[in-house]
Design brief:
Number of strands: 0
CATH class: Mainly Alpha
CATH topology: Growth Hormone, Chain: A
Distance between the termini: 40 Å
Number of domains: 1
Shape: globular
CATH superfamily: MFS general substrate transporter like domains
Oligomer: single chain
Radius of gyration: 21 Å
Length: about 450
């Protein structure tokens, strides 16, 4: 019987990359606009910290269940659901900006803004969906490049929009900027709906083809990876391995820190140094772009060095620590800029090194370990901004600088975790060749 199959590996890559790009843009939403909400609603620094962190809550916790959903239906449906939920949140925020802000926007609206921010953050969870979707489309020898493009280009979204949004706010005002943002998200969702395609195996399964027949036909077309039947077991086994949680903590510090600072830095620069929203957004965007782009180079470095994951992470974490110390002691924003660049470099390279270490540390449950690391590690984007705001609440304006001490403790603990991983005995034996291909999806996550 002739099959109706659509799409190519290239289309699968670029469709997922564009979808992730537009979905991940939500992480930059509240950073440049938080100061305006704070002024009209009379919010405390702590309340602002929770507000800018809210998209990261849903964006991190939804990664694991939606990644599991891909194993049964392919990535297209989970992708569209996440982008749809993000669009609903954006529609609500646009309505608030157009009809409520500024005269009627009081502190009573704060819980609604938190809920809408959580909905907007659903787009961040498209990362885990896109990783699997791209992996199933490409042969294993092509996945390093494909996933580097997917992760690298998708991750630049917060940086670009952190740069653009303050300019839009200055030229158009809050209401028009939100309308434009909402239209852009709808356009991105429509673009993914047009371009995003499941790999051949999932298309065949949706047409009623048996599992064995679908695998055989997809293999003949060039597909090499197929969904495993033991993802829950992989999650369970990796959860019992202490090394998994060491990697979760490191990723919490660096990827969670990346999301947190992308949202927090506009507030930091405007409130602590008195910079204009446009300049503050530009500096925050610089951080986000550097951190995203350097991640690809960090993956290459981790591949080339001996014991590359651990050694690369140690080097990058030391750079992160030096940048944090600069930020704590920066009396002027010109002094903070080198610290920001060092932090971006350290976080980006460590993010790549972590997923180099995953298959070495948890070789028998790589897929499950990657799920825990990617999902719970990103949770740092929700936890860290309120901690930074807590310092401001207790110490006043000086707390904006002193609050960065949280990264000193997180980085020192991450260095300790990396050292333990490096010298925790002989490496575990490599797993035997498996018929459960999901395990091979994790290593290219660098």
């Amino acid at each position: 019987m002739a099959r109706s199959l659509r799409g190519t590996p290239s289309q699968g890559l670029w469709g997922a990359t564009l979808g992730f790009f537009f979905g991940f843009a939500a992480v930059a939403l509240f950073g440049p606009t938080a100061a305006r909400f704070q002024q009209v609603m009379g919010l405390s620094p702590m309340a602002v910290g929770f507000l800018v962190a809210m998209p990261s809550l849903s964006g991190s916790l939804l990664r694991i269940p939606f990644a599991a959903w891909v194993e049964t239906t392919g990535g297209r449906k989970p992708f569209l659901v996440l982008l749809g939920l993000s669009s609903i949140g954006m529609a609500g925020l646009t309505a608030v900006a157009v009809w409520i802000y500024p005269d009627s926007l009081t502190a009573a609206w704060y819980p609604a803004l938190l809920a809408l921010g959580m909905l907007c953050g659903c787009g961040i969870a498209t990362f885990s969906v896109g990783i699997s979707q791209v992996s199933y489309w490409h042969r294993q020898r092509q996945q390093g490049r494909a996933l580097a493009l997917f992760g690298g280009l998708g991750n630049v979204a917060p940086g670009i929009f952190t740069l653009v949004l303050p300019f839009a706010l200055g030229q158009w005002g809050l209401a028009t900027s939100y309308v434009a943002w909402f239209v852009m998200l709808l356009a991105g969702t429509a673009l993914y709906a047009f371009m995003g395609r499941n790999s051949w195996y999932f298309q065949l399964r949706s047409q009623g083809v048996s599992d064995a027949e679908a695998r055989r036909e997809a293999t003949a077309l060039g597909q090499e990876l197929f969904p495993a039947r033991n993802l829950i077991e992989s999650l369970r086994e990796s959860a019992h391995n202490p090394k998994t949680w060491a990697l979760v903590f490191i990723y919490f510090t660096t990827f969670g820190g990346f999301i947190a600072l992308t949202a927090w830095l506009p507030t930091y620069y405007t409130q602590y140094y008195g910079l204009s929203p446009l300049l503050a957004g530009g500096l925050a965007g610089l951080f986000s772009l550097l951190c995203s782009l350097i991640r690809v180079g960090g993956g290459v470095l981790a591949d080339k060095l001996r014991e590359g994951g651990e050694n690369t992470a140690v080097l990058a974490l030391l750079i992160l620590l030096s940048g944090t110390l600069v930020m704590i002691n920066a009396a002027r924003y010109e002094m903070a800029l080198p610290g920001e660049i060092l932090m971006a470099f350290g976080m980006g390279v460590t993010n790549a090194a972590v997923f180099k270490m995953v298959p070495q540390a948890v070789p028998r449950a790589v897929g499950g370990a990657s799920g825990w690391v990617g999902g719970l590690g990103a949770f740092g984007g929700f936890v860290i901004p309120p901690v930074l705001a807590f310092a401001v609440r207790d110490l006043g304006k000086a707390g904006y600088a002193i609050g960065f001490i949280v990264f000193v403790f997180l980085t020192l603990l991450s260095l300790t975790m990396t050292w333990i991983l490096k010298y925790s005995g002989e490496p575990a034996p490599a797993p035997a060749p498996s018929t459960q291909p999901v395990e091979s999806l994790a290593e290219p996550l660098i």
